[in-house]
Write a structure and sequence with these properties.
By secondary structure, the protein is mainly beta.
C-alpha cells in the first residue's frame, strides 16, 4: 500500500487532558484504491464535538513495477464488505476495467 493523497482538517484546538475519540472507516473502494476517513472528536459538556479529520487515499502498489495494481480478490472482498458495513461505496465488480 502507498498513501497517494491525504487531506487533514483541523476544526478546533484540543488541550492536554481533553477526552478524544478517533474513529476510522472505509468510505470508498475502487479497483486499485481505498479511501479511508479518520475523524477525531473531543468531549465537551457531555457531547462529542468534531476536532479534526483526515482523509487518506491509498493505492495497492506493485513495488517492482512502481505502479498501482488491482487489489487481489481476497483483499478486495474484505475491503468491499467492510466498506458496505460502514456505509461507504464500492465500485461495482462489473465496472472494473
Amino acid at each position: 500500500m502507498a498513501a497517494v493523497e491525504t487531506r487533514t482538517k483541523y476544526l478546533r484546538e484540543v488541550f492536554a487532558g481533553d477526552v478524544l475519540t478517533i474513529r476510522s472507516r472505509i468510505v470508498e473502494v475502487r479497483e486499485k484504491v481505498v479511501r479511508i476517513l479518520h475523524e477525531m472528536t473531543v468531549l465537551q459538556e457531555g457531547a462529542e464535538v468534531p476536532a479534526a479529520s483526515c482523509e487518506l487515499i491509498a493505492a495497492y502498489f506493485d513495488r517492482a513495477a512502481h505502479k498501482a495494481r488491482p487489489f487481489p480478490d481476497a483483499i478486495r472482498t474484505r475491503l468491499v464488505d467492510r466498506c458496505a458495513r460502514e456505509g461507504g461505496q464500492a465500485e461495482a465488480e462489473g465496472n472494473r476495467p
